[in-house]
Amino acid sequence: MFFDRPASGEVAVLVHLAMGRECEADDPREFEELVLSAGGDPVAYIMGRRDAPHPGTFVGSGKVEEIAALVHEHDAQVVIFNHTLSPSQERNLERALKCRVLDRTGLILDIFAQRARTHEGKLQVELAQLRHMSTRLVRGWTHLERQKGGIGLRGPGETQLETDRRLLRARIKAIVARLEKVRRQREQGRRSRRRAEVPTVALVGYTNAGKSTLFNGLTTAGVYAADQLFATLDPTLRRLSLPEAGPVILADTVGFISHLPHRLVDAFKATLEETRNADLLLHVVDAASEDRAEQAHQVREVLREIGAEDVPQLEVYNKIDLLALAPRIDRDEAGRPLRAWVSARDGLGLEGLLGAIGELVGDDMVARDLVLAPEQGRLRAALYRLGAVRDERYGSDGAAHVSVRLPRADWERLVANEGAP
């Protein structure tokens, strides 16, 4: 990027080392799926163990020779590490292997850059990329580290490295300002929904758990859904009407993954606020995955990191069609929905899931059967304006017998302002 590199390609050699007492090496299939999602073609997977990373090359001289042999054998153009490499380690490895070297953060950033569709998503990805790039600038300008003297070589007192750093800082500052404007707009939308007493339900879960497929099944939104990691980057909101709880806003969000780079969490703060400010989280779990317990743990870790661990949750175990299970709702001792078993792809269990969501967000709802005299037309109009009327019929005396269901805050406001019975 900032120095002469061999032209990058798609043939990739993958590397993962277990460090110290770490016995659970990250799932090799997930790492391979990440590379495939980025458009890579994995031809070799090197695994090993070290007590601590080598300060110069992360893997040590023996592994470097082993990787170099595989790069030569397969004519690979990129070596991808399932770890975070320092700028100097990345540079030293590129010199030794004579091909491009990428770490896990760079790989995920590349996938995000491919997936971003909206202006906001592209800004968030660019911010994360620039922050990542700023730590690697020094590698590319080693030949310009010192200001040179002599006739024709004296400059304005700023090296190329300093110039690039200044330009990067200016671009980062501009993007942060634009994202802050997006954040304020999102907050304004959330305030409007809170004033209208419309609850927000956010889908969260490990990447490729089926969130977007479930979102489409519940809302017929037509959001892009694919069997690949990070198919969704840009949040989508849709209004959904529940039979028991009335209207809610359903939000589809970016999937989480183990060791999600902190730069991405920071850059996607505006998007992740939809999760933190939701009234209910639908934690979608891939029921057919052998690693579902660890994946659920990683999602809870990210929720803790963004301050959303205390938001009420309903676990949704998806893909039961792969396990030949029947849809059901598991409940706790108090009878509250705890876990829903569904197949978003086949539409199994979605009605039960909607009912469970309605129970959880409708806890603070008021249901009443009212008898309104003809002179209470103002109160009747207010109930219709709130969308609270479920049924209405007239008696022989002209009174309206009305069944209503509405949020408790709206009911208390009607009692205070309209004298509701």
UniProtKB/TrEMBL annotation:
The keyword Cytoplasm belongs to this UniProt entry's keyword annotation: yes
**What subcellular compartments does it reside in?**
Cytoplasm
Cofactor list = Mg(2+)
GO CC field: cytoplasm
Q: Which molecular function term from Gene Ontology is one that the record holds?
A: ribosome binding
| Positions that bind GTP | 205-212, 230-234, 252-255, 318-321, 343-345
The entry marks the following residues as binding Mg(2+), namely 212, 232
What the entry lists under Gene3D superfamilies is as follows: 6.10.250.2860, GTPase HflX, N-terminal domain (3.40.50.11060), P-loop containing nucleotide triphosphate hydrolases (3.40.50.300)
Domain Hflx-type G as annotated: residue spans: 199-365
Keyword rRNA-binding appears in the UniProt entry = no
List the keywords (alphabetical): Cytoplasm, GTP-binding, Magnesium, Metal-binding, Nucleotide-binding
Instruction: Give the matching Pfam families.
Output: GTP-bdg_M (PF16360), GTP-bdg_N (PF13167), MMR_HSR1 (PF01926)
Q: Which family does it belong to?
A: Belongs to the TRAFAC class OBG-HflX-like GTPase superfamily. HflX GTPase family.
Give the NCBIfam families listed for this entry: GTP_HflX, PRK11058.1
Q: How does it assemble?
A: Monomer. Associates with the 50S ribosomal subunit.
According to its UniProt entry, the function of this protein is described as:
GTPase that associates with the 50S ribosomal subunit and may have a role during protein synthesis or ribosome biogenesis.
Query: What's the protein called, per UniProt?
Result: GTPase HflX
